[in-house]
Design a protein that fits this description.
heterodimer; A: 119 residues; mainly alpha; 49% helix; extended; B: 229 residues; two-stranded antiparallel sheet; globular; CbiM/NikMN (chain B)
Chain lengths: 119, 229
């Protein structure tokens, strides 16, 4: 792994005949797909109780769920407080959620990867 | 499968909190061995994709839905330690920003989805990979098997926790049966989504897929040989 401190990210072990998708293109495509899923497709997701909620209802312990401590969050319940339109409210909350996860995760994993290459 | 506040009593929640902190602490060390400058962006992508995919509840009949847990998917793509961290980041954002999953249940949710889900998924994946033909196309299939098994096991683990410190007394067998039964169906959805997502990365950049490493190395050597000849 000598030369991995180089500014370029490419460390092709062997160039394949087929043109390879760059990491940047792959990640950007993935982000775009995820934004569409969270921002648009999520509106069409099932609103039925999920597996745990459904079992809790049938077994009679659903009511033991407490008030959520961050119910006052502007994005509580995957909606933006104050926006009436469900499609817009849910989609916007989804997009913001994806961006927050992205910010935390890219930073965290970059730091962890960096620290390793210093060893 | 996000556990809200109140389902489990304080001692049980504290215990799962300790398990979660220990697990994430180990993962912070372990992930450094899995990650490098090349794969770190994929790890970030996995986290945000799991967040987005978890918003997409799919119906499984009888007025019930399920969504991706993502543990097996993340483990196969970026390695189990890194996956533990990726799912933890998703759960932290969901619990604080979206009020999805209780704050006192954060330890429980991390223990269930970021530890049990990830490591059962990874363990079953590696077993399946060993049994399947030594080729890249086996990776999505093995990932699907790992994903399928991880969901009912995670659900069953919740039932065990509930038997220890649940808000009400329900016979263990009844709750395990109910949780595992429903989540076997959700596991099918988990397997399909996982297979599709892993296939997409295998088709474009197999060299980035952690769970495909043994197979990619073998293939690279063959190509090199052909070119030098």
């Amino acid at each position: 792994m000598t030369g991995s401190t180089d500014t370029t990210e490419r460390t092709d072990p062997a160039p394949t005949p087929r043109r390879r998708v760059s990491t940047r293109a792959l990640v950007l495509t993935g982000i775009l797909v995820s934004l569409v899923l969270a921002g648009i497709v999520s509106f069409y997701a099932s609103s039925s109780p999920d597996g745990l909620e459904s079992v809790a209802e049938k077994q009679g312990f659903a009511t033991t769920a407490g008030q959520h401590a961050t119910d006052e969050s502007p994005f509580a319940g995957y909606g933006v407080a104050g926006i009436e339109n469900a499609r817009l409210s849910g989609g916007l909350a989804g997009v913001i959620g994806v961006l927050v996860v992205a910010a935390v995760a890219f930073l965290l994993f970059r730091l962890l990867a960096r620290r390793k290459s210093q060893d | 499968m996000h556990v809200p506040d109140g389902f489990l009593d304080v001692p049980t929640s504290v215990a799962t909190g300790v398990v979660a902190v220990a697990g994430v602490g180990l993962a912070l060390r372990g992930a450094r061995r899995e990650l490098d400058d090349r794969t770190a962006p994929l790890a970030g992508l996995v986290a945000l994709f799991v967040f987005a995919a978890q918003m997409l509840n799919f119906p499984i009949g009888a007025g019930t839905s399920g969504h991706l847990l993502g543990g097996a998917l993340a483990a196969v793509l970026v390695g189990p330690w890194t996956a533990t961290l990726a799912i933890t980041v998703v759960l932290l954002v969901q619990g604080t920003l979206m009020a999805d999953g209780g704050l006192t249940a954060l330890g429980t949710n991390i223990s269930l989805m970021a530890l049990v889900g990830v490591w059962v998924g990874w363990g079953v994946f590696t077993l399946a990979r060993r049994l399947l033909p030594k080729q890249l196309s086996s990776v999505p299939l093995a990932a699907a098997v790992g994903a399928f098994v991880s969901v009912p096991v995670t659900a069953g683990t919740f039932a065990l926790l509930f038997a220890v410190g649940g808000a009400v007394d329900i016979p263990l067998g009844t709750l395990v049966g109910a949780m595992v039964g429903v989540h076997l169906l959700i596991g099918i959805g988990e397997a399909i989504i996982t297979a599709l997502a892993v296939s997409a990365i295998i088709a474009t950049r197999p060299d980035l897929v952690y769970g495909a490493k043994p197979l990619v190395t073998a293939r690279t050597l063959t190509i090199r040989e052909e070119q030098t000849a």
